[in-house]
Amino acid sequence: MRRLSALILLLMLAAAPLPAAADESIVIRFSHVVSPDAPKGKAAEFFAQRAAELTRGRVRVEVYADSELYADRDEMEALQLGAVHMLAPSLAKFSVLGANGFELFDLPYIFEDRRALRAVTEGPIGERLLESLEDRGIKGLAFWDNGFKSFSANTPIRVPADLAGKRMRIQASRVIEEQMLALGAVPHMMSFSDVYEALRAGVVDGTENPHSNLYTQRMHEVQPYLALTEHGYLGYAVIVNKRFWDTLPRGVRRPLERAMREATTYANRIAREENQLALEAILAAGTTEVHVLDAAARAAFRRALLPVHQSAAERIGEDLLAEVYRATGFDPQRK
């Protein structure tokens, strides 16, 4: 029923006129799929507040959290049609648009630390990736962090073989699918909003998430084991309908760009803080056994997952991947 209502709203809003007159109040509908308490949720609210302040009330950003308007499978189409104006989808979702370069962010162990990550998101590679969306009617504004992902499951995870045969929820990502297959797991694609119930009902056995997602979506209540593998990165690109953005007066766009810069700084700072707090809350809840990998186990996971880089290289682009390796200092030969 919610999906039908959302589709009707999509059609109605897609036909709505874009802002034209200089004295009109401008509403920006910002939709996302995570909790308002997750780092992305808080960053979206921060952006909304700063947008109102910097435009002196000229712009009102309406934030719709927790898939209130659109689930994963619908939100990109809604943006392109103009039913919503702004999204912050996970980077895994851009391959459905044919923007395969974004798949690099899903590669396991591609970023050794946040310095390596910033070399991509704040450098020429990230800039080119955002620019590549414009032919698809999308304007890329910024990259926001969530954090590094770890595996959770209904049985202990100590070594890669512990995930063999496990039904693992994944995003719609070829790289993440290949990652699970490399571990002998069974990838099961589903929308983020459905994961808690699927874990509770045993439809899937486990998943991967930064700690903040695991906690704010209450997945820790139905996942008794968590291994701190930190094998992959989860981030977002903040995007806006390009036609809508281009119709905004320059005197509105400029303060919005400033609000987005400030929100990005806030988002990336709070992501670190919130993930640490979430891990502490998971430990305090006592429902999930948290396992810290030793050096040998971490090396074993890295060896098991490195072949995913090779299988994804053709889709991502071998030249682009080599450029990422140079920018980050990643050594694909290190075992």
Automatic annotation (TrEMBL):
- According to the record, the signal peptide region is 1-22
Q: Name one GO cellular component term.
A: outer membrane-bounded periplasmic space
Q: What does the UniProt keyword field contain?
A: Signal, Transport
One matching Pfam family is DctP
What GO biological process terms does the UniProt entry carry, in alphabetical order?
Answer: transmembrane transport
| InterPro entries, alphabetized | DctP_fam, TRAP_DctP, TRAP_DctP_sf
Family according to the record: Belongs to the bacterial solute-binding protein 7 family.
The UniProt entry, under PANTHER family, shows:
C4-DICARBOXYLATE-BINDING PROTEIN DCTB (PTHR33376:SF7), PTHR33376
What name is this protein filed under?
C4-dicarboxylate ABC transporter
The species this protein belongs to is Pseudazoarcus pumilus
